[in-house]
Design a protein that fits this description.
Helix content is about 40%, strand content about 35%. By secondary structure, it is an alpha/beta fold. It has a 5-stranded mixed β-sheet with strand order 1-2-3-4-5. The radius of gyration is 13 Å and the shape is globular.
Length: about 120
């Protein structure tokens, strides 16, 4: 399966956010496409990102690495990277790896955009 990506800008109480909607599988073959998108957004000045993973069917360690790398990039600019995920099999990966302590994970895009913490 391929990876689909789309972006849009939204405003919320916490300010402007760029939502990256991801669909398909984030694995060793498709993760570079996501990495390129995140790098491009940060290079263009988007430092507050919401990665919407509701359409993600599969996530491996390469995909986790890309998300962690994206978080490091935005934090270098005082930014944030929030995840949207409500699929139990994907959430389990974040729990097992301890990344629930690293990433703010929300149940919906609206919740992530409106978060001010």
């Amino acid at each position: 399966m391929d990876l689909s990506l789309s972006t849009r800008n939204v405003s919320g109480p916490g300010g402007d956010r760029t939502v990256v909607e991801v669909g398909g599988e984030i694995d060793v073959y498709t993760a570079p496409k996501l990495r390129e998108q995140l790098v491009e957004l940060v290079n263009d000045g988007s430092y507050h990102l919401v990665v919407d993973m509701e359409g993600v069917d599969f996530l491996d360690s390469t995909g986790l690495g890309v998300l962690v790398g994206g978080l490091k990039r935005v934090r270098a600019h005082e930014g944030s990277l929030r995840l949207v995920c409500n699929q139990e099999h994907i959430l389990k990966i974040f729990r097992i790896t301890g990344l629930t302590k690293v990433f703010p994970i929300h149940g919906s895009v609206d919740e992530a955009v409106n978060a001010t913490d």
